[in-house]
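Below is how a single chain appears once it has passed through the pipeline. First comes the sequence as given, then the structure the pipeline wrote out for it. We keep one example in the README because the format questions we get most often are answered faster by looking than by reading.
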Amino acid sequence: MRVQNKSIIVTGAGNGFGESIAKRLAAEGAQVIVNDIDTANGERVAAEIVAAGGQASFFAADVTKSADMKALVAAAVERHGKLDAMVNNAGWTHNNKPALDVSEDEFDRVYAINVKSLYLATVHAVPALRANGGGCMINIASTAGVRPRPGLTWYNGTKGAVITTSKSLAAELGPDNIRVNCINPVMNPFTGLGASFAGGELTEERLTKFRSTIPLGRFSTGEDVGNAVLYLASDEAAFISGVCLEVDGARCV
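Resulting structure:
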């Protein structure tokens, strides 16, 4: 068991990458707080983890609200006695379209969910990690922050911010024995945001065109991302900090 009895929060864990991350961590012994604003799916994921023999419970919280994030961290400490790791996975994107066509409301929302949430996670989780003698934060960024393409300009900007912020936090929080890393997945068209990334219906033509840009010839899966998070959350990565791990089949090469 690679993360036995580690107390870990996974935001946006009601579906997609977050669900896979939560299940992979639980399978390796973690005590997982499944977080989402979607109560039905969040409770489903937690129940499926427990049914499989893992340890998990659900906590509803909006990652863009300070009070909610404070309560989320407090729940992990109350339920598990500590916090070992915070996985900031919750994310959103505007539809793929020209930069000038993205509304101000869409701009505000993508920055709130993708960037402000990281600020709030840091404000509320770092004291708990310090009290535990250290730990780690793992932020799910994107290849869009490394190899930005037209149509997702403002989303790309948020993921660039996540990458830079993760590196800066790693340098700042290292003396507290807190590691900060991020993961850059390539698109998985079958998550809830797939059609938004693609800019419309996921036709075979669109999928084939995007897949052709990935040297390994396939999209990322939840298992790919879950395995990467598991490594970074484990003691195997005890000297890994300030790293952005590209889980992208060499797309960014």
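The mean pLDDT is 96.

See the next section for the split statistics.
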